[in-house]
Amino acid sequence: MTETTASQSRLSRLFFTQPDNYDLDNKYTEAALERNKREGLELAVRARWIAMAFTALLLIYLNPHWEVLWYHFILLLICANGWLIRRAGRVGQSRTELFLIFIDLLIMTLGMIVPNPFSDDVRPLAMQYRFDNFQYFFIILAAGTLAYSWRTVIAIGTWTAFMWTAGWVIAWWVSTPIPGISERVSEALAGYPDVAEFMDPNSFMPTLRIQQVIVFVMVAVTLGVSMRRLNRLLMSNAGLERERANLSRYFSPNVVDELSQNDEPLKQVRKEDIAVLFIDIVGFTKFSAGRDPYEVIEVLRGFHARMETEVFRHHGTLDKYLGDGLMATFGTPLPGELDASNALACARSMVDMIDRWNIDRKRAGEAEIQIGVGVHYGSVVLGDIGANRLEFAVIGDAVNVAAKLEAMTRECAARIIVSDALRAQALQETPNSEDLMAGFEQRPDQTVRGVAAPMDFWVLQK
């Protein structure tokens, strides 16, 4: 690293308005930041307008003369500049926004230091500092915590301290004291030098001015540190939302809630008994032949959306899309007490959903959709596979058997085929599962391609 580069690195750490190094490539983090920034700016501008309105009324009460209009003009400029800041605000560092914040503080400083041009008051310039106008800077600082980064809030504190100090020093340098007043006050309060200085109209009271800026900077730093902690909390929440969004691509909402509160890693390989469901569109190749590709994609989207809804509604997990079909599991990533029953209920709901969809398609003059569903219950191995890109995988004979059962729906002219193992497990889970088997016919000792031994299964025909 060259000396110049190292110097720039050290300066960047000291530059208060430098933006935090957020991962803006992450859409969830960027969206959270943008939303927080926009909401904060809206709140800051509204708070500013309300505060300036109350301040305007307070000034009329304190100084019920036409000369107060000068200060109302200053308040109006501050309100207008707040609107400009809202328009220029964005996530990260904005030079325009920083410049407008600087102008904000400059307007405030000049408005408090420069004598009112509409006033014929002959009081010494030092008397301007006796009205405790500096406290109005706290309004700008408080509003800044609603919208800006913690670095910018600290910058507001340091800029204000510098401007205010420069202002009173220049005013002290160019002011013309009223002769004789200081001497008379000193004579009247002989023996009480501190009181004499406080009562002297020509005194700028430097110790009090210094105390003001030190306290202001301390408050700004404290607020900045608090805001940094809040920003970290925001980033943490954005990360959690990202993780929940990733989980929601695979698992039902109730499983996502459970996983988000569970420290057990998914990658821990284990063996479980679960229900596996396969579904696809019968004759989809023939259906899509000669059709517009966009129409085919829309049909697939409508099919997947409806089937996905049924999977999640029955507490299942969407394992993967398979072109014109999908694979779902029940009992992953965590086993439940009604996995087989939920899988059976889901298969029947899918059929009902397709029937309702076909009614709408027929009314629209579109071809009907036919499906085949295969469901099996058995042992599988669960766990993450992959190296850099992980995928939650379900592997085992139960998956293969369910896929084969779905393929046999063509041969059996069936809409649903469930294995006898799934039926037995569903009846063991709840006696009401017998109602879900209404309309099914048993096919004993059937040969299933790819399965070594004959098996019993149940068929719901078209």
TrEMBL record:
<feature type="transmembrane region" description="Helical">
    <location>
        <begin position="157"/>
        <end position="175"/>
    </location>
</feature>
<dbReference type="GO" id="GO:0035556">
    <property type="term" value="P:intracellular signal transduction"/>
</dbReference>
<feature type="domain" description="Guanylate cyclase">
    <location>
        <begin position="275"/>
        <end position="406"/>
    </location>
</feature>
<dbReference type="Pfam" id="PF00211">
    <property type="entry name" value="Guanylate_cyc"/>
</dbReference>
<keyword id="KW-0472">Membrane</keyword>
<keyword id="KW-1133">Transmembrane helix</keyword>
<dbReference type="InterPro" id="IPR050697">
    <property type="entry name" value="Adenylyl/Guanylyl_Cyclase_3/4"/>
</dbReference>
<feature type="transmembrane region" description="Helical">
    <location>
        <begin position="68"/>
        <end position="85"/>
    </location>
</feature>
<dbReference type="GO" id="GO:0009190">
    <property type="term" value="P:cyclic nucleotide biosynthetic process"/>
</dbReference>
<protein>
    <submittedName>
        <fullName>Adenylate/guanylate cyclase</fullName>
    </submittedName>
</protein>
<keyword id="KW-0812">Transmembrane</keyword>
<dbReference type="GO" id="GO:0004016">
    <property type="term" value="F:adenylate cyclase activity"/>
</dbReference>
<feature type="transmembrane region" description="Helical">
    <location>
        <begin position="134"/>
        <end position="150"/>
    </location>
</feature>
<feature type="transmembrane region" description="Helical">
    <location>
        <begin position="43"/>
        <end position="62"/>
    </location>
</feature>
<dbReference type="InterPro" id="IPR029787">
    <property type="entry name" value="Nucleotide_cyclase"/>
</dbReference>
<feature type="transmembrane region" description="Helical">
    <location>
        <begin position="208"/>
        <end position="227"/>
    </location>
</feature>
<feature type="transmembrane region" description="Helical">
    <location>
        <begin position="97"/>
        <end position="114"/>
    </location>
</feature>
<dbReference type="InterPro" id="IPR001054">
    <property type="entry name" value="A/G_cyclase"/>
</dbReference>
